[in-house]
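Chain A, query sequence.
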Amino acid sequence: MRLGIFSDVHGNLEALEAVVESYRDLAVDQYVCLGDVVGYGASPNECCAIVRELATVVVLGNHDAAVCGRMEYSFYYDAARQALDWCASQMEPTHMAWLKGLNYSHRIDDMNFSHGSPLRPQDFDYIFTIEQAADVLPSLEKMANVNFIGHSHLTKSFALAPGEVNEVVARRFGLRRHRKYIITDGSVGQPRDYDNRACFTVFDTETRIFEYHRVEYDVEKSARKIFDAKLAVNFGKRLFLGV
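Chain A, predicted structure.
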């Protein structure tokens, strides 16, 4: 089975549409979204509608949780709080109810899907450094063999064994049987790895080959929507830079 796995759409309709179109050529059998469908971007309802129709598995992201009232976000910085408040005011009731019903994680066979760390998915902990990946080693036995996460908007992957963590830097790689993996999926709508193209991935469960894909989209149109909605200017400007 070929899984199309994507994360952190963040209300960026133009990026999401480009990703969906690109997936058509990749023979994907099932789609998984790792959360944060909304937040930052100016098209939350449109993105919810597409993800709800496309993905058979969707897990809750921290921005999703904040928008639908499942997480306190008063400690977020001003611009982020404003964006979440604006998003909540724009959400259609059916999409809001859908966000409220999402699970923090989902498991299929030897694969686990969550927004942040698979150990405490409700805490939305980051894992994008070797040190953070090493923190899970004491619980390695409890973890699934392959753990897909989002949250950091980066393309970081780690291979783990008892007492050992190695970063995997390839854009396409095979998963070894005697290792466990934490694979960060990148971001569709707000990449932060200095590549402004939308990021999405494919995992073949038979060959155990994982690959990152990138696609260009109309960044200017997406940014203009953010500016017109009077959201923080930086949320639009950063789309051009991929940071």
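The longest helix spans residues 78-90. The chain is about 30% helix and 25% strand.
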